[in-house]
Automatic annotation (TrEMBL):
<dbReference type="GO" id="GO:0016020">
    <property type="term" value="C:membrane"/>
</dbReference>
<keyword id="KW-0489">Methyltransferase</keyword>
<dbReference type="GO" id="GO:0030424">
    <property type="term" value="C:axon"/>
</dbReference>
<comment type="function">
    <text>Catalyzes the O-methylation, and thereby the inactivation, of catecholamine neurotransmitters and catechol hormones.</text>
</comment>
<feature type="binding site">
    <location>
        <position position="42"/>
    </location>
    <ligand>
        <name>S-adenosyl-L-methionine</name>
    </ligand>
</feature>
<dbReference type="GO" id="GO:0032502">
    <property type="term" value="P:developmental process"/>
</dbReference>
<dbReference type="Pfam" id="PF01596">
    <property type="entry name" value="Methyltransf_3"/>
</dbReference>
<keyword id="KW-0128">Catecholamine metabolism</keyword>
<keyword id="KW-0949">S-adenosyl-L-methionine</keyword>
<dbReference type="GO" id="GO:0032259">
    <property type="term" value="P:methylation"/>
</dbReference>
<feature type="binding site">
    <location>
        <position position="141"/>
    </location>
    <ligand>
        <name>S-adenosyl-L-methionine</name>
    </ligand>
</feature>
<dbReference type="GO" id="GO:0042417">
    <property type="term" value="P:dopamine metabolic process"/>
</dbReference>
<dbReference type="InterPro" id="IPR029063">
    <property type="entry name" value="SAM-dependent_MTases_sf"/>
</dbReference>
<dbReference type="InterPro" id="IPR017128">
    <property type="entry name" value="Catechol_O-MeTrfase_euk"/>
</dbReference>
<dbReference type="GO" id="GO:0042424">
    <property type="term" value="P:catecholamine catabolic process"/>
</dbReference>
<feature type="binding site">
    <location>
        <position position="141"/>
    </location>
    <ligand>
        <name>Mg(2+)</name>
    </ligand>
</feature>
<keyword id="KW-0479">Metal-binding</keyword>
Amino acid sequence: MAQRLEERILEYVKQHAAEGDPQSVVDHIDKYCSQNEWAMHVGDEKGLILDQVVKETNPTIVLELGTYCGYSATRIARLLKPGSRLLTVEMNPENAAVAKQMIQFAGVQDKVEILEGSTEVIIPSLKTKYGVDRVDFVFIDHFSERYTADTKLLEECQLIKKGSVLLADNVVFPGAPDFLEYVRTCGRYDCTYYPSHLEYSDKLDALEKAVFKGP
Ligand SMILES: O=c1[nH]cnc2c(O)c(F)c(-c3ccc(F)cc3)c(-c3ccc(F)cc3)c12
Ligand SMILES: [Mg+2]
């Protein structure tokens, strides 16, 4: 029995999902976490909203804050057009190691790069160290206490331009009240609220989409 929950999830995927098939990996993570052990992936219900927003944005460069096991990175990468890429930031090295294997097994490793470290250090280095000019889509799913600071950092580093889309998880549970206040009142975002449920649960949760209108 693998020691850590995240390793048990990876083991289950390796033993039951179809290698090279990102949809199969996503489906099997959802199956394991709804039947066996709860884990904090965005999940199948909120995942369908994520899919819809990714499809309507059709992004070339995606930034994800909070990789965890690689569920949403796999979910997003499966929808990306050839030549596009996803950079995902994870500060927990053990989770990053699981995510690397999950992404590899799903066969999306050519589109996904895992950046280990904290967002406050990595975001300011994206232009210089990772050759990013602008990000078209940001999935914010790390710590709700960092949502606002990291959004302001993306603005200050000029990584988001007019039309860039932010999509934040958990704006109801655990909640991100200062983030909602900021994007809805600062005058630089067009916001949309998507009510849903906490992953693998009937508790209420929601995603907030914030489309940048420019500085
Ligand atoms: O931390 C997170 N990052 C990203 N997504 C998350 C997510 O989608 C979640 F559903 C939860 C969650 C919410 C309720 C709960 F009871 C347990 C965990 C967390 C979370 C929140 C606070 C913690 F102390 C630990 C985990 C996160
Ligand atoms: Mg989340």
